[in-house]
Design goal:
The protein is mostly helical. The chain has one domain. Helix content is 79%, strand content 0%. It is built from 12 helices and no strands. The two termini are 16 Å apart.
């Protein structure tokens, strides 16, 4: 099979899987019929902004290995990563991004996974700080302290710090686990922390981008609540969005479907928002995000399949 036929076949497979997926989960899209054009445009723009900042974070990560990707690569791989994650559980889209970098730039899979391990630790640290900071700010503003959520934030921060310390100890002693999925994951985290220890400025850049992402994705969720007729304080939305960052730990369903919505519903109810309204808003967020994901994902799949084959 020549390259031209293979490229077309690969794209058609992705296209038809995408159409089937959108049909299978049409309930998320059906809710969009009741949205006004204004809300749809605002949430769509923020969805694009989310992809842009996720892509910038990815661009910073691979620069550690002196890879200078073109825009169509660092942005395109990010949207494709998200699209394929909808097809497979456990964030399967990450494999597609690792595969492209390996075939195009000879970047070993282990090095890419170590980058992800280190970046997850940084993101968790920023998110846990966000939970504490935004919870305190909300309490000072409203006069009501939500000790449950504040306690969750403090617990997650302590857990992240302890985990990071253990990783640094492991790096300094060059400990290596040989077998097992969990042990491989720990090795990736250790290797990633070792990489970031050598590039401290990169840690600041990635942390800043993650902080911006919390605001952008929080804004998207804020307008989703507005779209379903529920007004929720932006600072409370930022608390919820900071908690959502940790949903990647339990990403056991394709696209994290149900997990993210459940977390939003659970913690929104702790802030006085009815669970049903929170699920409705999360579904609006999800529905528009899915449309943007598959539109951009299909477009860049064709571009990068052609690019990789050259």
């Amino acid at each position: 099979m020549n390259n031209s036929i293979w490229r077309k076949l690969s794209y058609l497979i992705l296209f038809f899987i995408g159409i089937f997926y959108l049909y299978f989960y049409h309930s998320y899209l059906a809710i969009l019929k009741s949205l006004t054009v204004g809300y749809f445009v605002i949430i769509s723009v923020l969805s694009f902004g989310t992809f842009l900042f996720l892509a910038i974070q990815f661009k910073f990560l691979v620069e550690i290995f002196y890879l200078n990707l073109e825009f169509k690569e660092w942005f395109g791989l990010t949207v494709i990563n998200t699209m394929i994650s909808y097809y497979t559980p456990a964030r399967g889209g990450l494999i597609a991004r690792a595969y492209y970098l390996n075939r195009k730039y000879d970047l070993p899979y282990s090095k890419y996974m170590s980058l992800l391990g280190g970046s997850y630790t940084i993101n968790f640290f920023v998110a846990s700080l966000g939970i504490i900071f935004f919870s305190c700010f909300s309490a000072f503003h409203s006069g009501v302290w939500n000790l449950k959520i504040l306690g969750v934030g403090i617990g997650l921060l302590i857990g992240t710090i302890i985990f990071s310390i253990l990783l640094f100890i492991g790096c300094s002693r060059t400990i290596s686990f040989k077998t097992g999925r969990i042990f491989n994951m720990i090795n990736n985290f250790m290797d990633g922390m070792n990489l970031f220890r050598k590039h401290p400025f990169m840690v600041l850049k990635i942390s800043f981008v993650q902080f911006c992402l919390i605001f952008i994705m929080g804004g998207k969720l804020y307008w989703s609540f507005k779209a379903v007729g529920r007004s929720v304080a932006l600072i409370d939305i930022l608390v919820i969005q900071s908690l959502v960052v940790f949903s990647m730990v339990i990403s056991i369903t394709p696209g994290n479907l149900g997990i993210k919505e459940g977390i939003i519903g659970l913690f929104a109810s702790q802030l006085g928002v009815p669970f049903a309204d929170a699920i409705m808003a999360a579904s609006v967020d999800r529905g528009i995000s899915m449309l943007i994901t598959f539109f951009l994902g299909m477009s860049y799949s064709k571009i990068l399949i052609d690019n990789k084959s050259r």
